[in-house]
Structures are given as C-alpha cells and as structure tokens.
Amino acid sequence: MPVLLWLRYDWQSKKDLSDAIAESEALGPLDFRKLLAPAPPAPENGYEEARKATLLLRYSKEKMTEEERTLLADVWESGPGERENVRRIVEANRQALDDLRRGLDRPHIHFSMTVPEKKPLLEMLLPHIGEFREAGRFLSLCAFLEAESGDPSGAVEDAVRIARLGRSLREDATFLISGLISVDLNRMACKAADRALSGGLTVDGECLRRLLSSVGFAPDFGRRCLIGERAMGHDACRWILETGLVKDISRGSDSYDGPALFLVRPYFRQDNAAYLRMLNEDIRNADKAPALSEMSGHRPPLESAGILSAMLRPAHEKARMEFAKARAFADAIRWGIALRLAHEKIGSLPSTLDEVPAECIPDRPLDPFTGKPFVYKPDADGGGFLLYGVGPDRKDDGGALKYDAKGESPDIGIRWKLPPAGK
Fold this sequence. Notes:
Layout: H1 2-25, H2 47-61, H3 66-78, H4 83-92, H5 94-104, H6 121-148, H7 152-172, H8 176-197, H9 205-214, H10 221-243, H11 245-249, H12 258-263, H13 265-285, H14 291-296, H15 307-346, E1 375-378, E2 384-389, E3 412-417
Antiparallel strand pairs: 1-2, 2-3
C-alpha cells in the first residue's frame, strides 16, 4: 500500500508540475536565457568606459575613511552632510568621473549580460550590480554638488545619466534583483533631479526633455521583472530536482540516505508547481492599480507543498511595493517637468493637469496607488506648485513630504518653485 500511495503521489506531482509549466509558458518564457537582450554593436557601447570607471571607484573607495564611505553610500538618501568631504571625494576621482560620463553618454550602454551554459545566473549578475550602484552613488554626489553650487543643468544631466544607467540594467536583463537595483538607481536620479529643480533655477528645455524621457518605468515593468524572477526560480528548482541537490546527495554520504532523498522527488516537483502558480498570479496583477490592494488582497493560497513559495512571497511583496513607490515618485517628477515645460510654453502654470499640453507628457501617468490623477496644487502667486500621490496608505495627507530616516514620507511627490516666465 505505501508503494502504491507513493506512485500515485509521484504521478500527481508530475502532472501538477506539467500543468503549471504549461500555464506559465502562456504568460512568458521560462528559460531565462531568452530574457537576456543581445549586445548592441561595439562602437556604440559605453560599457568599457563605464566599467573601468566603476572599478576605479571601487578601488579608491578602499582608501577612504569610514566617514567618507558612509557619506558615499548614504548621500542619495539624505544629501551631503559634509560638503567639503564630498568635493574632495569627487576631485580625487575626477578621472573616473570623466570616464563614467563619457561611457554613459554613448547612444547605447550595454553591460554584457551573457550567460555561459553552466554558469549560475546570480554569479553573473551580482558583480555588475555592485558596479551599477557604485556608479549611481558617485554621480549622485556630483549632482548634489552641482545643485548646491548653482549649476542645476549639470545636476539634471547627471540625473539623466543615473536614470540611463538604471534603464540599461533593466533592458539587459529584467529579473527581480536587477529590477530592484534599477528602481534604486531611478530613485537616485529622481532625488538628484528634485534637488536641482525644486529651487526655481533656470534649466535648459532640452535638458529637461532628456530627463523626462529617462526617468520612469514602462507600464509592464513589474510584470517583466516577475517573469524573469519566475524563470530564475524555476531553473533553480529544476537544478535541485534533476541535476543538483537530490541527485548529488542521493549518491550517499555519512549523514544522508540516498534512496530516502529519491523518495522526496515528488515533493520538490509540487513545490516547483506551487511556486510557478504563485508567480503566475503575481504576474497577472503586477502592474494593476490600485497597486496596494493587489499586493495585499487578491493572493492565491499557499499549498502545503509550497515551502519555496512561502519563503519567497515576502520578498515579492516588498519588491512590488518598492516598484509602486518608485513609479509614483518618478511619475511625479515627470509631471513636474511637464509643468515646467508648459510654463515655458504658455508663460504661466496650468490651473489643472488636464491643461498641460499633450506634447509635454503624452502618457499622462496616474498615481499607481489609486489609479487616479496625482493631486496638483499650484501656488496662489503662480510661482510654484505642489504635486503628489497619496502613497501606500492611500490617505491624502495634504502633500506631507517629510522624509524619515528610512526615506519614507506619508505622501509621495514634489514641491517646486518655477523660474520667472521667459527666463
């Protein structure tokens, strides 16, 4: 009888996994190699300059004091606390900065996300991610210095470079881990732009248009990240089941019994199936508004076999929340740029967002937490505006943009002054 029960369990696990794979492939590829973008022609690629620069930054960072390393790591969250220290760090790395800017100013930046057949994906991704973060933080230092010294156009250009760095990452390989770093870089770019533009200083219109096209995310960004995450997770499950853990340990050792591990193969299959079903549901709802209700509400139950699903669900929930918050901030910045362009065009602020010319912001993004327009309040004297989304709690706190130590605020948005018309 136990043998018959095991055989039935084994047959059922194969069927469950086969059904889950068929359902998954209808939503996107399960082979992560199909998700990697091909490299563009070498003459258009700024990868070598940018890589050399970020490696130089990493080397020079080892020579910094602990205070300087902390400053470099945290500057994009709170701004430079010691201006002269920031200036010294930038000047000490001037050659790296020049190489980095030259690389990122190329028409295409591609970070060579190729995968040898037997090389684990994370082993390929992680070194690049460290370089991306170093480059983004260093450009943030420069942007903050430029904004404080009265060069907002220079700060905006560096914000564009940071945003393009994040975009190159998510275009090369969209997985949850690369998506989160892309979100991180986009947030750095938005904070640099916010600081440069909030004071009402004049910035070249073309510079603003480059920023408008650089920050933000495609409507299906969350979906593509989760499709990549599902492909990577499925590959790990397949390795455990077919070529890795079970097979290796089943050869026998002092502490494991090979046949006993072979008997739990059906469990691994059902765990893989449960993981795929959870990700499929997440993929269907990834970019829907209101984002918060989809994150915390319509969720599939966890099957008893889904240990992998139970372990990874909190990470997925946190990632989706970060995606929504980053989208809200980026779209608020984009609306702010559109309002500045409209102000230049017509000589005054529009009284509502509906009056912003379509050519200034064709896609008209909505608050991702409500699916409704952002709250827009022009100043009575027409010299500035407040624009915000209501944030994860979906409560309108009147545009409360006070950031705590973790960089969180009740509402998500911007408060900008505008340069005088015609200036």
